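Example 3.2
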Amino acid sequence: MRIVPRALFGAISALIIATGSVVVTAGSASAAPAKLSQSQASSQLGAAGIRVTSSGGCTTRSNSSCTSLSQVNAATIQGAVTLKNASGCALTVTGGTEVGHASGTYSHYNGYKLDFAITSCLTNYITGNFTSIGGSKWKAGSGNIYYSESNHWDVTFYSCGC
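Structure, written as C-alpha cells:
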C-alpha cells in the first residue's frame, strides 16, 4: 500500500470531485489497443476516401486471399486516414488483418499493419518526407515504419500519426 503525502491529498480530492472518478495504478501497465470490427474500419476508411481491395473479393479473416479489417487497431485506421490527408494521395488497402502475413507483436494479424498499393504519389511522399533506415524501409517522425515490398507498401502503425 502506498501512503499519499498530506500535501497531495487536497489536490487528489479536488480531482476526484471534479472528474467523479478515481484511477488506481499499480506499476506501469499499458492498455490493449482499441479494436474495430470489419464494418467500423471499412466505414472509417470509406469516409476518408480510402479504397479497400481483395484479390479474393472477400473479407474473411481466416482466408489469406481476403483483405480483412476485423480486429484492426483503431489507431491503425486513423493512421491510414492521417497518411491520406498528409500525402494527398489516393490510397488503396490491399492487406489487413487476414492470415498469411508474418507473425509478431506488431503484425498484420494483431492489427498494427496495413498494406497499400504502390503508386508514384505514395512512394514519392514516403521517400521524400521520411527517414531512410535501410533495406527499403523509411521511418516517420511518429515512429511508424514504411517498408517497400515487391508490389505494395507494408506499413506498421505504432501511432495514429503518419
